[in-house]
Automatic annotation (TrEMBL):
Residues 89-133 form the MYND-type domain. Keywords: Metal-binding, Zinc, Zinc-finger. It holds the Pfam family MSS51_C. The keyword Zinc-finger applies. The keyword Metal-binding applies. GO terms for molecular function: zinc ion binding. Residues 395-411 have a biased composition (Polar residues). Gene3D superfamilies: 6.10.140.2220. This is MYND-type domain-containing protein. It comes from Hemibagrus wyckioides. Residues 393-412 are annotated as: Disordered.
Length: 435
């Protein structure tokens, strides 16, 4: 049938429209170009590097990859330095150093998130800022509470599933199995790390109801990943009870692997209790060293357990070096969180070989997107590659934690894994033409 057409045989891919050029407003500003931050706020990238005590971007990248360290004398200094990277006028984009008096830069008293260099700028920007002020207050709280993931306080412990996976269709269904969360929440809210957080953050501790809601939102982002993997298993009718399954997580970066623990995806075992074994291999050029940086399995892992491994490099390199040689299992499912097709400068050096490989080997694949616009662009790209798109839509297990674009805060927040699209192989009419 001529179905397996590898990269060199794929033929010419239609040029992508100019709308796919990188945008400084992209939530992928770090992944696709650290200095794109400067497009909105000139000099912001240097402010970030200075506050991390780094000379250049290579030191920043080395720290993310575990080849360097970010040293702070105290947690208070860490939070102060982090907050300084958000200090610029949301109206005119001036940094403190570009003002005659840096102390003129003041926080919005309502959201405690954005700054203004003068009353004139604040008044000028209010018609826009008032649309997002309440949401940005939520973002500001979540940004700090997120630190509790690194202390181990979050996520809160979860319960055994009392319903089959197919009956759990959304967060409300999942929460209904968790019982009363009060005790688990109180343990976090009254804990030493939560107290230290607000002591060191140098801002008033929010009301308990705000913190309780923030803890849930931060947990939802963490849990969104394993639940989305489980959703992909169900979309393609894979049966984890009849045989072990291998999932490749493509395009994994420091978001998934920085500080990752080997237990991070254990919710999958609660989703499919008694499964035959699940392996998730995180593959990407920005994979960060840590406990999960261990070789993929040749044989299947232990029954009822989720085994996480990682490979630092591009997916087609991983395929050629390990999968084709039998050093790693072929995937039953491939998942990509926020591949960012619409923000990359072209698919050729990054995603194109991977997409063609997934298509030509007819591998069940699921990708997630931050928003409807990204979903639309991604669908267009995959259609140009003649992919057989099976479905698209809102992800029922989207993160509930809003994300702002650091250098352009007065925009509608985005949410991790908000939308999905799934595809497998070539369109049928294209297969018929080849036959």
């Amino acid at each position: 049938m001529g179905r397996i057409r590898l990269v060199g045989m794929a033929g010419k891919v239609p040029a992508l429209p100019e709308s796919f050029a990188p945008s400084p407003d992209s939530v992928f500003s770090d992944q696709f170009g650290f200095f794109s931050l400067d497009s909105n706020v000139p000099g912001l990238s240097k402010v970030i590097l200075d506050n991390l005590n780094m000379k250049d971007f290579s030191e920043y990248r080395a720290a993310l990859e575990g080849r360097g360290k970010v040293g702070f004398r105290s947690h208070k200094e860490m939070f102060q330095k982090m907050e300084e990277t958000f200090k610029f006028c949301a109206c005119c984009s001036k940094l403190p150093r570009n003002l005659p008096d840096p102390s003129l830069l003041r926080l919005c008293a309502k959201c405690l998130n954005v700054y203004y260099c003068s009353k004139e700028c604040q008044k000028k920007d209010w018609s826009l800022h008032k649309k997002f002020c309440k949401k940005l207050r939520v973002v500001a709280i979540d940004r700090l509470v997120d630190w509790l993931l690194h202390t181990g306080d979050l996520p809160f412990p979860t319960e055994t599933w009392t319903h089959p996976a197919k009956a759990v269709r959304c967060w409300d269904d999942w929460l209904s199995m968790q019982g009363d969360l009060t005790a688990r929440m109180e343990l976090i809210l009254s804990g030493k790390n939560m107290t230290d957080l607000w002591t060191n953050a140098c801002r008033p501790r929010p009301e308990e109801v705000e913190l309780r809601e923030s803890v849930w939102r931060v947990c939802s982002e963490f849990l969104s990943r394993p639940l989305t993997l489980g959703l992909g298993i169900q979309m393609f009718l894979l049966d984890p009870y009849s045989r072990p399954l291998t999932i490749h997580l493509v395009g994994a970066g420091h978001n998934e692997t920085l500080g990752a623990r080997t237990t991070d995806l254990d919710e999958l075992s609660r989703m499919f209790p008694g499964h035959q074994g699940l392996e998730v291999v995180m593959v990407g050029p920005e994979v960060v060293k840590g406990p999960i940086m261990r070789p993929p399995l040749r044989a299947f892992g232990p029954r009822g357990r989720v085994y996480i491994s990682a490979y630092k490099g591009l997916y087609h390199e991983f395929w050629e070096e390990l999968v084709e040689k039998g050093e790693a299992a072929r995937p039953d499912l491939v998942v990509g969180f926020h591949p960012g097709f619409h923000a990359s400068q072209g698919l050729g050096e990054g995603w194109l070989p991977t997409l063609l490989l997934l298509r030509d080997y007819c591998i069940p694949s699921v990708f997630t997107m931050y928003n409807d616009g990204e979903l639309k662009y991604s669908v267009q790209i995959l259609m140009e590659l003649e992919m057989d798109i099976k479905g698209t839509g809102p992800n029922p297990f989207s993160s509930q934690k809003p994300e702002q674009v650091q250098s352009s805060p007065n925009k509608e927040p985005s949410y991790c894994n908000a939308f999905y699209l799934n595809f497998q192989g070539l369109l049928e009419d294209k297969l018929e033409e080849e036959d």
